[in-house]
Design a protein that fits this description.
It is built from 5 helices and 2 strands, in the order H-H-E-H-E-H-H. By secondary structure, the chain is mainly alpha-helical.
Length: 142
């Protein structure tokens, strides 16, 4: 059973998947920082700092008027946090757009590399070493 497990782990697909997950986790941190630290502040400038995070409705409990969502939750009140949900959707759409643009750029680079490779394969390779030696042999026979 241990040998079978070692064989399973050593297969390329499992290792590729593990590397993909690790790289994906690191990439997630980069994209999250890009959106949170660079893109959202720019959108905030354009929209006048619109942030729905603290929009909520109190379902049960006493909450001070104008309290933040965090303060409302700390009081133990039951809150319907629709603003946080709206911001999660907005952040998802921004992240999806950034990932789409990155994938589009990577695909463009891959396509350019594939075209260069095809062009290199189509170019005549010229005579091989054997062809040159045969020509020399034939020239020496004459």
């Amino acid at each position: 059973m241990l040998e079978e497990f070692k064989t399973f782990i050593a297969k390329g697909n499992v290792m590729d998947m593990a590397v993909g997950i690790i790289i994906g986790a690191a990439f997630t941190a980069i994209v999250t920082s890009l959106v949170g630290d660079l893109i959202n502040p720019l959108i905030g400038l354009v929209t006048g700092g619109v942030d729905f995070t603290n929009n909520y409705a109190v379902l049960a409990g006493d909450v001070a008027e104008g309290a933040s969502l965090e303060a409302a939750r700390e009081t133990g009140a039951s809150v319907f946090a629709y603003g946080a949900f709206i911001m999660a959707i907005v952040n998802f759409l921004i992240i999806a757009w950034v990932v789409f643009m990155l994938v589009k750029m990577v695909n463009r680079v891959k396509d350019a590399a594939a075209e260069e490779e095809e062009a290199a394969e189509e170019a005549p390779a010229g005579p091989s070493e054997l062809d040159i030696l045969m020509e020399i042999r034939d020239a020496l026979k004459k």
